[in-house]
Every structure is written in structure tokens, then in C-alpha cells.
Amino acid sequence: MEGKTERNLIQAFAGESQANRKYLAFAKQAEKEGYHQVAKLFRAVAEAETIHALSHLNVVGKVGTTAENLKAAIDGETFEFVEMYPPMIDLARREENKAALRSFTYANAVETVHATLYKEALEEMGNLDETDYHVCSVCGFTCGGEAPGQCPICGSGEKAFYKVG
Hints:
Strand order of the largest sheet: 2-1-3
CATH topology of the largest domain: Ferritin
Shape: globular
Order of helices and strands: HHHHEEE
Distance between the termini: 39 Å
Number of strands: 3
Number of helices: 4
CATH architecture of the largest domain: Up-down Bundle
Largest sheet: 3 strands, antiparallel
Helix content: 55-70%
């Protein structure tokens, strides 16, 4: 059975992870407004939050072998598109919240792609070809190799993609 300290580590990991993403979003906004030094501060603190999050995750024993991590990633992505997002999509539709509906729908569709990429990586772990990945900056669609001319999820053009190597 999981003790209180382990639950606290998992909760702290979630909080630090959210702070990292939030501060990166704040940094982008500060850059847009021309506050470059504030953006640097947000990015620096975001890095520190990542250090905290990774420490908590390691202490609680949630980082395993690469095969174990791929299986955990498959499970996480599958949970999102099977259980988490569908009721969120339904509620956003009923509440006629178009922005939330689009955000949830894009994420849900992309999570299936992520699960597939992880499954392929698990099956071919030692034999994967060297490739870069491209991510759509609008919806998060992820693909190996060259960016498509148009995103299959959101329809954005090739310029919406950036390379992650």
C-alpha cells in the first residue's frame, strides 16, 4: 500500500510539473509583450520546477527501464483518449464551449497518435531508425520524419510544425 509520503511525492510531482508548464506559458506571453528579462526569469524558474518534479518522480520510483517507461506511456496516453477526454468533450459540447471542445478534441485525437508511436517504439526498441520528430504547434500532432504539408488533425499548414530532435 502506498504511504502518505509516496502520495505526497506524486502530488508534488504534479504540482511542480504544472508550475513548469504554466511558467513556460507565462514566458511566451512576456516575450510577446517585449519583457525579455521577465521571460528569462519565468524560463529559469520553470527549469527549477522541472528539477523538483524529476526528483520527486525518481524518489517515488516511477522511472523504470525504457521498456517499462514505454509501457507506462502507452497506458497513460490510452487512458487519456479512452477515459479522460471523451467525457470532457461531451461536456464542452453540451455547454457549447467551442474553444474547450476544440482543445479537448485535438488533444484526444493526438493522444491516439502518441500511443501508436510509443507502441511502435516498444516493438522496435533496439532497431529504430534515427529520425527527427515534428510537432504541430496548434494541436500537438506528432510524427517522425518530415513534417506533413497539412496537419491531419487540425489542418494547419507545414509552417505550424517544428522539429524536435
